[in-house]
Design goal:
The protein is mainly alpha-helical and 134 residues long. The chain has one domain. Helix content is 49%, strand content 12%. It has 4 helices and 4 strands. Helix 2 packs across helix 3 and helix 2 runs antiparallel to helix 4.
């Protein structure tokens, strides 16, 4: 377990924050969220009616949930509240593994990740997190 935690630390932080790693992690989170929310039953209209989203709408919704600012699409589309079962596309694994998750929980995880990663990324790109030479 300690080796796994050391490896995760080495990949994510190691010698300081690397903006390209943060951007890559953000893209993975946004795309996996868009994949999840493109499934039926994961998105509702504000009035709680089911809404069949397209891949583009799911991507926009995940981007909106990830960013720590409010955008207009958030006023119309919201994550569903009922748990959904989704088959995980893992190559070589038959039968497919099923994941049961409440869309509002997935949205919360993405939103928290955005509130953490976006400010760190901005700070890294502006040089606030640069090491000072002694």
């Amino acid at each position: 377990m300690a080796r796994l935690l050391d490896w995760i630390y080495g990949v994510l932080v190691n010698d300081g924050v690397r903006p390209w790693r943060l951007a890559g992690l953000a893209m993975v989170l946004i795309l996996s969220g868009a994949w999840f929310f493109s499934h039926p039953g994961t998105v509702e209209l504000r009035d709680k009616t089911q809404y069949p989203v397209t891949w583009g709408e799911a991507l926009n919704l995940r981007l909106v949930e990830f960013l720590p600012v409010s955008l207009p699409i958030k006023e119309q589309l919201v994550p569903g509240s009922d748990p959904v079962s989704i088959a995980l596309p893992i190559p070589g694994v038959k039968p497919r593994l099923m994941m049961r998750l409440r869309p509002s929980s997935a949205a919360t995880i993405l939103q928290l990740a955005g509130w953490i990663l976006v400010p760190i990324g901005v700070a890294a790109m502006t040089g606030v997190l640069m090491r000072k030479k002694k």
